[in-house]
Design a protein that fits this description.
alpha/beta; three-stranded antiparallel β-sheet; six-stranded mixed β-sheet; 9 helices; about 40% helix
Length: about 270
């Protein structure tokens, strides 16, 4: 049994965060575990506005102790951390148990927002977690924040950000460009290993139902690593996984809709 862990926030609507991670782990055939760093809620009385409620430090440590000491992991990812102690604890346990297959998904924003949730702790995340990661999976906004450049909007700007992030200590960089590139006709993500750029291209699915897709991609890469894939192969399979998920996305309510991780299973059965 391949044991997969996520250290991430819980999305009360079920579409993103650790809920998306666990669904993805399940579709890959892995055994998923979760340490909850925070609970994100969306207020239906205030046009789905977001609120974040961090989990206490003692509770988070107890969860990590259960997962890493009590069970053990083959691969792990981090998502929204939101507090300095969440970053410190994640780094402590990932380092203590020498987790080689660690995916850093530097979640800095809730879908529907337009500002970093905690800009003051971004540097701590870079300092503590970037050196431990096998692969980092920012979207274009997060890539710009980490690389200290404007949000990339062209392929060349994404490549520049990837180089900068690699130079900061990430051995593999996967920037989720998707539909965010200027004049995009296809969905393009960029993978960089310090030597070569690989462009992961798929059909551009024009949909508003993208809630949780960034989390899903990172979780799919984590699962791929846990099952023994090399980083690029894990990213390539994750690209196929998310394309199917987006193609089968659906409206959850009048504000938001998620992708559908179960589409992967249905496509091959």
């Amino acid at each position: 049994m391949v044991k997969l862990a996520t250290i991430a926030g819980s999305d009360a609507s079920g579409g993103a965060g650790l809920e998306a991670d666990l669904k993805t782990f399940q579709e890959y055939g892995g055994y998923g575990m979760a340490a909850i760093t925070l609970v994100a809620t969306m207020n239906p009385h205030k046009d789905w506005s977001h609120e974040v409620f961090p989990i206490g430090e003692d509770s988070l440590r107890a969860q990590l102790e259960t997962i890493f000491t009590g069970v053990g992991v083959d691969a792990a990812k981090t998502g929204m951390l939101a507090t300095p102690y969440a970053i410190e604890l994640a780094a402590e346990y990932l380092g203590k148990y020498k987790v080689e297959n660690y995916v850093l998904d530097p979640v800095m924003i809730c879908k529907g927002g337009n500002l970093p949730l905690n800009p003051e702790i971004n540097e701590l995340l870079i300092k503590k977690l970037l050196p431990l990661a096998k692969i980092i999976t920012p979207n274009v906004f997060e890539a710009g924040q980490i690389a200290h450049v404007d949000t990339p909007s062209t392929l060349e700007e994404i490549k520049d950000a990837a180089k900068r992030i690699y130079d900061m200590g990430a051995p593999h960089v996967f920037i989720k460009g998707g539909s965010k590139l200027k004049d995009a006709e296809t969905s393009v993500d960029v993978f960089y290993d310090g030597k070569d750029f690989q462009y992961l291209e798929a059909e551009l699915i024009k949909t508003e139902w993208t809630h949780g897709c960034g989390c899903t991609v990172a979780a799919a890469i984590t699962a791929g690593l846990g099952f023994g894939l090399e980083p690029y192969e894990a990213a390539l399979r994750a690209k196929k996984f998310i394309t199917l998920s987006l193609r089968n996305g659906f409206a959850l309510n009048k504000w938001v809709g998620p992708g559908n991780p179960a589409a992967w299973r249905k496509a091959f059965n």
